[in-house]
Amino acid sequence: MKHPSSILLxxxxxxxxxxxxxxxxxxxxxxxxxxxxxxxxxVAKHLDELTNGIGPRLTGSPQAIRxxxxxxxxxxxxxxxxxxxxxxxxxxxxxxxxxxxxxITSPKSAAQNLHFVTRAWSAGTKGRQEGPVLLLPKTLEEAxxxxxxxxxxxxxxxxxxxxxxxPKTRKLKDFLKTQGVLGFIAPSRNQLLITSGNFRISWxxxxxxxxVTLRVDEFNKLKDLVQKGEKPRVLFDIRNHFIQGPxxxxxxxxxxxxxxxxxxxxxxxxxxxxxxxATGTTDNGTGTATTLEAARILMASxxxxxxxxxxxxxxxxxQGLMGSRAYVKKHRSDGLLDRVSAVLxxxxxxxxCAGLQATPSQLPILRKALSGIDKVDPQYEFEVSPLRFFxxxxxxxxxxxxxxxxxxxxxxxxANYTHTHHTQYDTYDAAxxxxxxxxxxxIALSALAIANLDKLLPxxxxxEIARLTGGNRRRRFRLGIEFAEGVLVSRVQxxxxxEASGIKKGDLFLRIGKNKVEEPRDIMLGIFRxxxxxxxxxxxxxxxxxxxxxxxxSLNFPRRRTxxxxxxxxxxxxxxxxxxxxxx
Length: 584
Ligand SMILES: [Zn+2]
Fold this sequence. Notes:
Layout: H1 4-17, H2 27-39, H3 43-54, H4 62-77, E1 84-106, E2 112-113, E3 116-118, E4 129-135, H5 140-145, E5 154-156, H6 167-178, E6 183-187, E7 211-214, H7 216-227, E8 233-256, E9 261-271, H8 281-301, E10 307-314, H9 322-331, E11 340-345, E12 352-358, H10 363-369, E13 383-386, H11 396-400, E14 406-408, E15 410-412, H12 417-420, H13 433-451, H14 462-468, H15 473-479, E16 487-492, H16 497-501, E17 508-512, E18 515-516, H17 520-532, E19 537-544, E20 547-554, E21 571-574
Parallel strand pairs: 4-5, 5-6, 6-7, 9-10, 9-11, 11-14, 12-13
Antiparallel strand pairs: 1-2, 1-8, 3-7, 4-8, 8-10, 12-15, 16-17, 16-21, 17-18, 17-19, 19-20
Helix pairs in contact: 2-8, 2-13, 3-8, 8-13
Residues 271, 283-284, 317, 347, 394 line the site of zinc ion.
């Protein structure tokens, strides 16, 4: 706050410089859209039908399939003709969560209902199962010393988190299972009960015993009772069911077809799937409801964009952006992605849409295009600001990986994201209706303005993404950005082993042996690994003039005593695609 006057100036600069472009959205159209979005809103109805009517939408569950067809029907009911579902995969095992309840039944003085969650794709009880609570034995030896003890008991102990996967824990659990325990009870970290789970299971090896994550205060109460010798008993009734696959997974797609460039797109979307510990409002019922509502508003306003606006609802987002990745993968080679101007993703919770962040080349265009958006509701801020750091973790990142400009709506407001995100509190009441009306209207207007621009938005180069994500692959992976392929060879040193292998300037480096090359360090690592194994040569796979070519790199370096890799100073590589394919 050193120079408040200059900050103020900058805050107003965009609006001063760029009066709204009436060619993108004429003011009469804008007013009609705002009127429709704010006065005739149905966003709360969409959200109610989705979260209360259909309920949780775990990918691979019957509700997720129901939700996909429901959303398709919704789009159709707005008059969109080509609304359809697109299958992106089949899963081997489906999962359906029914009601779950638990209580302390004894001693009477401690009786109460329990608050807990079980993971998705984990076992339920076999009916109502009551039994004594025993503390988890510390070691396998301790358990084996009293094998008669555990039959029909609930085992209380810290088995969650990382411990779940340690070999020691697994052995102990396996032994207790063979002794006939009813299930395991672990504590939650705090008052929030977070749902997660792993869908990668087989029908044959599906889990058999329930694992309860009990709210930590209730866990401690039970532990106290056991330690005081009160011999507490608990009863759980958990109706988790597996469904033998194949279970189809769907994305939902619907287009308002453009008048001038129907095969160019602005994509608007959110994810239809949720975790199933609650009904998925924050994540991502609001994204689904505002996507639907933006489509309804535009259809009801009778506007026709120049480019097509494609509405998409993905599934498998919570398992790693799977639906959107599959979509991007499917369209990598058919040229569609080159014709997508922007992807606008709403997955930030229940607050209002407060703006977008754009790269330097996109910033002036978007600021001008979206300059009228603050008229939607003057009490809510809206700003297009410079992208300083890439926010990933949702479906826009799948598109960014393919260099399509992907945006994540920034949100502001009074809602507490952490309280509801993946927790037991992620229910319909987490939504704030005026915020949802504003968001849907902002999304409708923004999509229309971008669809009406003269040109597609400038692509984001891989170098730019690398810079904005901190440049490191693990980080990018966490953000959900994976580059599909290659490192471009920009120079080959004369007389080097690289030259001897036949590598040429302009080759796109794809793999070393079986290992993918996604950034320059992968090349060093690949060579180093082969060298360490004592290999005499290693296969290099490059793409040259559109064709994949195999080369052999000799590893006949003099072996040093130190375990350092051969210094690959022979060539310089940059994480970019072929420069002539770089637009702008
Ligand atoms: Zn989400």
